[in-house]
Amino acid sequence: MSTILLRCAVSVISLCMMCKPLLAEEDATFWEGFRVGGYTSVDLHIPRTESTRLNWNELAMIVTWDKNTRIKFFGELDLENVASYTHRQGLDFRDVYINPERLYFDVNLTERANVRLGRFLTPLGRWNQLHASPLVWTASRPVATTELFPTFTSGIQFFGTLPLQERSLDYQIYTATMNAQPESRGETQYKDMRGARVAINNVFNFTNENAGLNTIGLNYATYREEQSFGPKYSILGIDFLLEFDRWELSGEAYTRKIDHGQGGGSGAYLQSAYLIKNDWYWITRLENLHQPNTPNAERWIIGVTKRLKPNQLLKFEIVGGNGEYEDIPRGFTTSFAMMY
Prior knowledge:
Oligomer: single chain
Protein name: Porin
Radius of gyration: 21 Å
Keywords: Signal
Number of strands: 17
Helix content: under 10%
Signal peptide: 1-24
InterPro entries: Porin_dom_sf
Shape: globular
Largest sheet: 16 strands, antiparallel, barrel
Distance between the termini: 27 Å
């Protein structure tokens, strides 16, 4: 981990120094482009079969640089599993670790094409790219988005938006150029990640003023496990988001194959958020996960979420069904998440 962090630091310093001469011709002050922020969240879990646990999940620092030029920078460094408390163990800091979540440069090539260089969230589906606690409705994450593909990719990504009359097409094409990239602690390590996602926006061409986003995305990727002679996977997925009146509906579904066409697992979720009143939302989610040599998971979630401020969410939810995951236990959870 220390070697990776050292490489990241050296890369950022080197690339920033490369950017500075380019900005001179823009007659802009280099350091004025930096912005610092972040997010954090705290959960209280009351699981079915374990002790009640209070978790400080993460403390994230985000640094961006943008001077309205062709080059932009984004960096996120997370302190994960900051602290936990149970009646039996008391206050515990033993699981804390540093995760270099994102570290990349975006370069604008043309009006419809950009290139991203560095470590970024794997652009498979929607949730993985927007999974920060203050940006999602629930404290728990759909298991299909954590167990079937790598969360991060270190490499190069081409992305942009193409006009299609009343609609538009977003595209993301990416490939890993550095293997042995760190995942969150306990996650399977992958390498040789490459894939693409295309999403059509304004699919239904709504004209009603109460209608919002309506997007359908298609995803495909290949990768292999980091271990020696690890299996090679190919994954195909679809995702969607629909906003209309008081409703927001979203979902993702994936099927994964191993070499020679063998089944490598599948998973999906379907989620709804309904605006009740005064920024209170009723949340419902159904999800499943099927993997070789592990029990299947069929889960449901119901809850309410209050948007306290544009950057703060208070969440209450009950997780039921079958399948146990340490970071997403069945039972009751309440969570507070904020951006700063």
